[in-house]
Write a structure and sequence with these properties.
This protein starts with a helix and ends in a 9-residue tail after the last helix. Helix content is 42%, strand content 17%. The protein is elongated, with a radius of gyration of 17 Å. By secondary structure, it is of the alpha+beta class.
Length: 83
């Protein structure tokens, strides 16, 4: 795909990631590590592809309401904090 991006006047790559890349959560070692790796890959590609005028960015999403987070909240010992 790099050849196509080089030919484009607006070549860009956007990675969708998580704030876990910057702020790991307990019991999420593998996920946090993978997110940090993706952020590092994004930075590396941004530097590498800059010479071709291809932008590389990452969107770091915060918490998204999902069944996973609802289960984790339901299983918490401390139910004092609201969802």
């Amino acid at each position: 795909f790099l050849d196509d991006l080089k030919r484009s006047e607006i070549g860009s790559i956007t990675n969708v990631n998580s704030l876990l890349a910057l702020q790991p959560e307990p019991h999420m070692i593998a996920t946090s590590s993978a997110r940090a790796a993706l952020l590092n890959l994004t930075h590396s590609l941004a530097h590498e592809f800059n010479q071709f005028k291809v932008r590389v960015n990452s969107i770091l999403l915060g918490m998204v309401e999902s069944a996973q987070w609802k289960r984790r909240y339901a299983n918490r010992l401390d139910q004092e904090q609201s969802w």
